[in-house]
Design goal:
460 residues; alpha/beta; Rossmann fold; eight-stranded mixed beta sheet; binds cytidine-5'-triphosphate
Amino acid sequence: MNINLQNNLKNKKILLGITGSIAAYKSPLLVRELIKMGAEVKVVITPSAQHFVTPITLASVSKNNVVSDMFDLSGQNEGAWHIHLAHWCDLAIIAPCSATTLGKFANGIADNALIAVFMAIPKNIPIVIAPAMDTTMFEFPATQNNIQTLQSFGFSILPPDSGELASGLTGPGRLPDVNVITNHIAQVLANGIDIHSVNINQNERLNQLINSPLEPLDQAVEKGKFQAELELEQMKNSLIDNELSKYFKDKKVLITAGPTIERIDPVRYISNFSSGKMGYAIAEVAKKYAKEVLLVSGKVNLNPPDKVKFIEIESADELNQAVQSNYEDYDIIIMAAAVADYKLANPFPQKHKHSENNLQLDLVPTVDILGSLGSKKNENQILIGFALETENAIDNAKLKLKKKNLDLIITNIYDDNNQVFGSDLNEVVLLDKSFNESHIEKSSKSKISIEILKKIANLK
Ligand code: CTP
């Protein structure tokens, strides 16, 4: 887009309506582009659109509340909220506009928030409509009539692109690329809608589209959809990156990982199945955003991540020693280590010889590291524990959270088929101090680490 046109979007208020077309996947990208060009964007979305894109994603990209429910009480504080929203904008656009919304809008059926707002838009505010649907729906006479009706109301129709559609057919119906839409908006803002000339051009284009042959696609690739999903994923990741960088850039994080080993004699020990993968994954992700990461690890088969301070320990006592002498320097302490609860009161100094008699080991409790940190952490420190329970997981985790004065507890979901130890996958529930529960479905330990960091960044 040329710079002058791009400037037309600066400080402009754009109302974006999103409807239930598969191309709704692309709408966060559109919002992001409009914002990049200096516009402010508010979004209103139909119930069906929410099958393709979530209001939360749109709210976080637009940095504004998203209107999705006509009767949502939180939107009612200004009275006649839909009228306020309709009068607020400099330009309103429905992209993608489904066949259903075309029909409702052309006939004034305001049975959802989007149509209610768009029908309340004053005459002097330009309205752009970008239909997107499957070719056969686009060509259906009622759809074409509705488009003509909306044109006759003075709205600008942005014709769809021709190409591969989600159905696997090829033909007109694709939502044009984001830059085509922003370009169109900028043109309308610059020149207004000259109904006469615009309609002649648009009608020509629409006729061309309708008359072009409909080819079946030999491989039903949902190319457009995949592309949009991919871009959306990238965009979500960059939003997460920003959020985490902002929060962690001045934070020092101490993470413990892996098992402890409690010696019986010089060659035998008591330990557990912890692989250390969860703690290492958190360290790997945290180092990307945090000012400093210290990983204190039991003996595991993993290489310490680059650019992370590293201390290797063997026993619960050594872990305790390493943590106690460092924790004061750290803002966030994540105890992912599987610490032995018991150690030998008196390990044998020499290898214990085999005999026919039973052997009784005198086990004494190890120090509760997490509990001791909880009782002395300062008010700015965040302390996080893990829990692995085989029964009453959530209730026990709540008790542990309170008892040990934690800010967050991460409970591994354990059942006989769910191999927590050694696996690259995990399923956890995060519980904060107010007992808000977030269930993270089975996913890679790095993905879970990102969710944990996101939760930490949003702890109250
Ligand atoms: N933990 C610790 N010190 C110990 C034992 C455990 O700091 N001596 C930490 C672990 O790193 C983990 C959390 O405590 O973050 C929970 O460990 P878990 O074994 O599930 O709980 P316990 O407190 O030992 O309680 P219980 O075994 O009775 O459930």
